[in-house]
Write a structure and sequence with these properties.
Length: 326
């Protein structure tokens, strides 16, 4: 069984090809990078429509697979930006119909967890998923993937990008903030916003910008933002692990590339006698292979979709998905 997956929830368009043994035969991607400002959904969608067909060809070449050898076509059905989702869904439908193959729409957040389980040694983890648009703590409980904690406003990565713009660091600010934070040492007062099991990030950004206006150094601001936000993520992850009695943490999403976040979660897991797992970086970020693999699991469990079922859902909730493959 060979499965092709197309990812396109936000700035990344990706095409992955996997086989039944979770071998990744290809995982090609192309990221939309705005010249200035944040992601414009329509422009990101235009980018995806330009690159999706070349990416499919590139992935087939890399995998050494003929188009007709594809058994199932999968795509990211949500959550994400509407124009981006519709663009890759259209590509997936066209491919599935022209090849006369089944099509499977995949929940993007769950696919981060499934690829981590397939490609690391964890079996039943709590996923700390921290990316631009998404920030969720997810695990499997009582027959479904459930969200144990999540952002109440914006994804942590989007907050970093917005803060980066306010501080003049440019787009895709996370790695810059990480680097500058290494020179900081003074913990400035920022709103530590854990509400129950959920988190809020936009107030932290507002407070950080106010610190800058008062003349605090960039280094201390970046340091304080990281320490505060990552402590919140680590706290909620730990509480989820305690609540559902799980001993594994899996990291997913672009923000988990951050070494300070990894160190904090690693410290928490070792203090608990638990284990932390991190997939290779190309599988942490948004990619087509995770969509292909999750779609393959769903297909093998008997999930079938008509074209009518492939309508995209910008707010596709992790806990809406009927999980028949576990
Ligand atoms: Fe993602």
């Amino acid at each position: 069984m060979i499965c092709l997956g197309i990812e396109g929830t936000a700035h990344t368009c990706g095409v992955g090809i996997v086989d039944e043994d979770a071998n990744i035969l290809a995982n090609e991607l192309d990221m939309y990078r705005p010249e200035k400002g944040g992601i414009h959904p329509r422009e990101a969608a235009n980018h995806h429509s330009d690159v999706v067909v070349p990416l499919i060809r590139k992935a087939l070449d890399a995998a050494g697979v003929e188009m007709k050898e594809i058994d199932v076509v999968c795509f990211s059905q949500g959550p994400g930006l509407g124009p981006c989702l519709r663009t890759v869904a259209t590509a997936a439908r066209a491919l599935a119909v022209s090849l006369d193959r089944p099509i499977i729409g995949v929940n993007h957040c769950i696919s981060h967890l499934e690829i981590g389980v397939a490609k690391t040694d964890c079996t039943d983890p709590v996923l700390l998923y921290a990316s631009g648009g998404n920030t969720q703590i997810i695990s499997f409980a009582n027959g479904r993937y459930r969200i144990f904690g999540e952002t109440l406003d914006i994804g942590i990565g989007n907050m970093f990008d917005k803060l980066g713009r306010e501080l003049g660091l440019g787009y895709y600010a996370g790695p810059k903030i990480e680097k500058i934070a290494q020179e900081g040492s003074r913990l400035l007062d920022l709103p530590y916003s854990v509400k129950g099991m959920d988190m809020a990030f936009s107030g932290i950004m507002t407070a950080a910008v106010a610190h800058r206006a008062r003349g605090e150094s960039l280094e201390d601001i970046c340091f304080s933002v990281q320490e505060t936000c990552f402590a919140m993520l680590t706290e909620v992850t730990e509480r989820a692990m305690a609540h559902i009695e799980k001993g594994e943490v899996l990291l997913g999403g672009g923000v988990v590339q951050n070494k300070r976040l990894r160190a904090m979660v690693a410290r928490m897991t070792s203090d608990r006698g638990a284990e932390m797992f991190v997939p290779e970086s190309r599988l942490c970020i948004d990619n087509g292979a995770m969509i292909a693999w999750t779609g393959l699991l769903m297909h093998n469990a008997g999930v079938r979709m008509t074209i009518d079922d492939t309508k995209v859902d910008q707010r596709y909730r992790t806990d809406e998905v009927e999980v028949s493959w576990r």
